[in-house]
């Protein structure tokens, strides 16, 4: 899978619709403190299904919606679209949208899908919200300090077998 473009609207500090091309290879994000670098990475995690408020640095899921500033009213929704492509080059356009009081919804190439469909798709492609391909602030120190079990989880994500565990847990609970 290849990520090609990211579109954000009302997500955290990205209040106006913004579009970023993701070029092949390693991508670094640079800019002054507070300009939104970490927010960008969080947007990628969020569209892939991240639901932990802690890894989104927020108290609740609706906190990803632009909260307003002195001169700007808050928004009532946040939307992130990740334009990706599968290994054959066919488009995989993933949209996640959250509205105040209405929760979040996902679309894949325009069709409504479940959160689980999205997280499994990314887990099978060896990427996903916890992918080691996304190196966020403090992550290097975290890898060094990780317990062996945590390190194993990182390796499993990288190897693309994390989705198998989800399916096994699912099967066991039925
Ligand atoms: P640093 O270099 O310090 O790591 P950064 O570029 O990673 O900074 P971010 O942490 O991505 O910056 O962005 C922080 C900014 O995002 C802050 O100004 C914060 O107020 C703003 N922000 C976060 N959530 C929201 C929200 N829901 N609504 C509006 N602004 C938000
Ligand atoms: Mg940061």
TrEMBL record:
<comment type="subunit">
    <text>Homodimer.</text>
</comment>
<comment type="similarity">
    <text>Belongs to the SMC family.</text>
</comment>
<feature type="binding site">
    <location>
        <begin position="32"/>
        <end position="39"/>
    </location>
    <ligand>
        <name>ATP</name>
    </ligand>
</feature>
<protein>
    <recommendedName>
        <fullName>Chromosome partition protein Smc</fullName>
    </recommendedName>
</protein>
<comment type="function">
    <text>Required for chromosome condensation and partitioning.</text>
</comment>
